[in-house]
From TrEMBL:
NCBIfam families assigned to the protein according to its UniProt record, in alphabetical order: MetQ/NlpA family lipoprotein
Entry's Gene Ontology cellular component terms: membrane
Main location: membrane
High-level lineage: Bacteria, Pseudomonadati, Pseudomonadota, Alphaproteobacteria, Rhodobacterales
SUPFAM superfamilies (UniProt xref): Periplasmic binding protein-like II (SSF53850)
Membrane topology per record: Lipid-anchor
Name listed for the protein in its UniProt record: MetQ/NlpA family ABC transporter substrate-binding protein
Key words of the record: Lipoprotein, Membrane, Palmitate, Signal
UniProt xrefs under InterPro entries: Lipoprotein_NlpA
Length: 258
């Protein structure tokens, strides 16, 4: 009887261990990394151990996911994922929404978009989706006009009106905060702004409207969508604890989607 009880205990322990899962989630620096660390705290009692892996650019996290180096990533919006799938053939799918981070126009030289002078240089991200997003925001600010029908991915070649003859310098998104001293202004994604010590609420000279199509997403490989750990990951992210963390830490510069 004693041996039987011992065997039952061992089997129960083994089953409990099997229920716990370890996953790696790729993120970009700044708010995506900070929020996922909070998600990891919430997910742990739910039986999911999350190791947060930071990537310094927007290209590597999808490749790492496709290659099986990580189980999920959380750093991008759907227009960017769609473009990556189109260009690289990744078999990746979104499984949940996360946050919206309005893109901001930053400058060390002027206080508003209207103060930009003839021939000034504006930095924008060099990837098609975020570069296109930057141009659309600059159009909203009244600085340029884009050709009709360009959708969410216009390029500088689609600029049809440019009253100030602005020049556009396309740089890696992570480089833009470090390049502000050499630019007259730059369109910078919130995660890279925060990582560089900029405050999106006080340091921007203009901010993208909150109502935009660039809500961020959690992404996994095709075939993993129905895995139990995916449901746990999304549930942990959409928890009240994580929402409160975001509201308390970012004071409206990062918006939740749930």
């Amino acid at each position: 009887m004693k041996k039987l009880m011992t065997l039952i205990s061992v089997l129960a322990l083994t089953a409990g261990t099997a229920m716990a899962e370890d996953i790696k989630v790729g993120v970009s620096p700044g708010e995506h990394a900070e929020i996922m660390e909070e998600v990891a705290k919430v997910a742990k009692p739910m039986g999911l151990d999350i190791k947060v892996i930071e990537f310094s650019d927007y290209v590597v996290p999808n490749q790492a996911l496709a290659d099986g180096d990580i189980e999920a990533n959380s750093f991008q919006h759907k227009p960017y994922l769609d473009n990556q799938i189109k260009d690289r053939g990744f078999k990746l799918v979104p499984v949940g929404t996360t946050i919206t981070t309005p893109m901001g126009l930053y400058s060390n030289k002027v206080k508003s978009p209207a103060e930009l002078k003839d021939g000034d240089t504006v930095g924008i991200p060099n990837d098609p989706t975020n570069g296109g997003r930057a141009l659309l925001v600059l159009q909203d600010f009244g600085l340029i006009k884009l050709a009709d029908g360009t959708g969410l991915t216009p390029t500088v070649l689609d600029v049809t009106e440019n009253p100030k003859n602005l020049k556009f310098q396309e740089l890696d998104a992570a480089q833009l905060p470090r390049s502000l001293a050499d630019l007259d202004a730059a369109m910078i994604n919130t995660n890279y702004a925060i990582a560089a010590g900029l405050n999106p609420k006080t340091d921007t000279i203009a901010m993208e409207k909150a109502d935009n199509p660039y809500v961020n997403i959690i992404v996994v490989r095709e075939g993993d969508e129905t895995a139990p750990w995916v449901k746990t990951l999304v549930s942990a992210y959409h928890s009240d604890e994580v929402k409160k963390f975001i509201e308390d830490k970012y004071h409206g510069t990062v918006l939740t989607s749930w």
